[in-house]
């Protein structure tokens, strides 16, 4: 439940909104924000980096979790690191595999009876000049980074539409807005994600479903090890748990509000 108190002017002070909500018998400002406690959250790419940090963040908020990625052992380790008492299930899933994604959504519904938030986070980087890029690598990065987002969103949305609620948070990248040398495959996949989710946003909003796309710059995670490139300015770029905090803020906004897209950059990359 929330109240916007008719506070349409951005400059109006927050306390005015709280006063208006109090006069409407809404006594706590906490009721202004969406309650994450007990929400059911599917996180893809939950075995590492941003996904693992997002799992820990949602667990600390009292959410119930569905952890998906390919490596079951790593998912189990993340599950074991969650706040004691957290309800979490591990579903080994290749997000590019349609049957695996259907199974992920089915298992989530069987276990918890509902889904409230989908975090489309699974993805990887591969960087090479186009002349050195194999067609197989190009196909695979689109299969995981783009088709994976397509499949997870496609199979979760009917449930969200049925209940006329839900949030889809997709971790794209600034590489979805800006091309760079050696980034042909990765940028193509992330530009694709931007077009995909911009379209889905228009479809989903009439069902009260929020489609939020985050475009981080560099984040200190194992992503760079997998891509075989050095981590840039490790001391300056955001840590995975800081991106998780941005996801928390985006999801916790009042249900009638939506951060459609959000660039996340280091405050001071060079120091
Ligand atoms: N780190 C950055 O600088 C940065 C910046 C902008 C955007 N991003 C995006 O953030 C997301 C998370 O990356 P990260 O930085 O946290 O990297 P990471 O630590 O390498 O995590 C990547 C995750 O994706 C999963 N994954 C990869 N292929 C998969 C597949 N086929 N099916 C299911 N899961 C798969 C991995 O799990 P398994 O290996 O167990 O499958 C892992 O959990 C990615 O989409 C990435 O493009 C990262």
In the CATH hierarchy, what is the superfamily?
NAD(P)-binding Rossmann-like Domain
Number of extended strands? 7
Distance between the termini: 43 Å
Determine Rg (CA atoms, Å). Answer: 19 Å
- Just give the CATH class: Alpha Beta
- Please work out how many helical segments DSSP would assign: 8
Structural class: alpha/beta
Could you tell me the strand content as a percent range?
5-15%
**Main sheet record:** 7 strands, parallel
CATH topology: Rossmann fold
SSE sequence, one letter per element: HEHEHEHEHEHEHHE
Instruction: Estimate the helix proportion, in percent.
Output: 40-55%
Brief summary of the model shown:
This protein has helices at 14-23, 49-60, 72-80, 98-112, 135-163, 184-204, 223-227, 240-252, and strands spanning 40-44, 64-69, 88-92, 117-120, 167-171, 210-216, 261-264.
Describe this structure in words.
With 271 residues, this protein is α/β, with parallel strands linked by helices. It is 42% helix and 13% strand. It is built from eight helices and seven strands, in the order αβαβαβαβαβαβααβ. It has helices at residues 14-23, 49-60, 72-80, 98-112, 135-163, 184-204, 223-227, 240-252, and strands spanning 40-44, 64-69, 88-92, 117-120, 167-171, 210-216, 261-264. The longest helix has 29 residues, at 135-163. The model is unreliable at 1-27 (pLDDT under 50). It binds NADP nicotinamide-adenine-dinucleotide phosphate. The site of NADP nicotinamide-adenine-dinucleotide phosphate has 30 residues, from helix 2 and helix 7.
